[in-house]
Every structure is written in C-alpha cells, then in structure tokens.
Amino acid sequence: MPEIRSPLPGSFYRRPAPGQPPFKEIGDRVEPGDVIGLVEVMKSFNEIRADVAGTILSFAVEDEEPVMAGAVLVELEG
User: Distance between CA 28 and CA 76 in Å, rounded?
Assistant: First the structure.
C-alpha cells in the first residue's frame, strides 16, 4: 500500500490556515507533487508533497498532531 511519510519531525496540519479547507480529503486523488499538508518545525511551515499517485484511504495522524520524521501521514490506494 503506497504511503506518504513525514520527512521532518513537527506538527502536522491538514489546512493551509485556520478556517480554510483541507488540502486533501479522504477519497481525493493525489498526483506526485500535490500538497497534502504542512509540517511545522520551529515556527516554519514546510509543505508535504505526495511522491506517488493514488487515492487517499486514510490520514494516519490527526490535524495538528505531532509527528516524527518517517511517520506515515497518509495511506493511499493504487
């Protein structure tokens, strides 16, 4: 099963800013290069981009949840 992992430790955000819609929802198709979220490290926000194509089956972490480097963020189908 393809996955998208966090390259950095920090806090994962599914939205570009509070009150805005998430970058992606469960069931959305992603292509390589699509932004799926942000990881905040020391007040710096880093875009997390898909490196594989597929359909989002689930998010492995909740919005604003801390993540470690290498942690699975998104599970994809196909």
Answer: 10
